[in-house]
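WARN no homologs supplied; continuing
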Amino acid sequence: MLIMGIDPGTATTGYALLRAENDKFEIIDFGIIKTEPKDENADRLCQICEDIEALAKEYKPDNAAIEELFFAKNVKTGIAVAQARGAMIATLTRLKVPIAEYKPVEVKSSICGNGQAEKSQVGRMVQMILGLSAPITPDDASDAIAIAITHANSYNFREQTRDNRDLYKSR
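OK structure emitted
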C-alpha cells in the first residue's frame, strides 16, 4: 500500500510517500511545500493544493493520512492552517484518494509510545523505524512520515481485526 502522509501548514507543509507492506516500510519520496509569507493567503492555498495534486497524480497513493489540527494559543495561525488543511482534503477528495485523519497525540503514541513526545523524539523514532543512519529533515517531512507510518499500523490493525471477526463468524 502506498500512503501519502501530510503534516499540514500554511508556511510549510510536510509530505511523504511511504510504501507499507506488512510491517516493512520504504520511503518513496518526502519533503516540504513552502509558501512565501508575502504572498496572499489564497495564492498560498492554491500553491499547496497544486503541489499536493501533482504529488498525488505522480505517485497515485492508495490512501492519504493527514494530521488533525491542534492549536492552543495562536488562533490566527490555527485558522490559517485549518484553511490549508481543508484545501488539501478537498484536493485529495476530488482526486478520489481515501483520507484518514490522526490527532497529534495519536501519531506520537503510535511512533514513540508517548502521546506527549517531543518533535525530536518523533524524528529519532522515525529514523529507527526506517533503519536510517541520520534523522529525516526538516521536522515537517519527518512528521509526515510519522503520520504515514501511523496510518499503515492502524490500517494493518483494522485489517487483522476484520479478518479475525470474519473468522469468528464462520465458526
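The first strand starts at residue 2 and ends at 7.
OK
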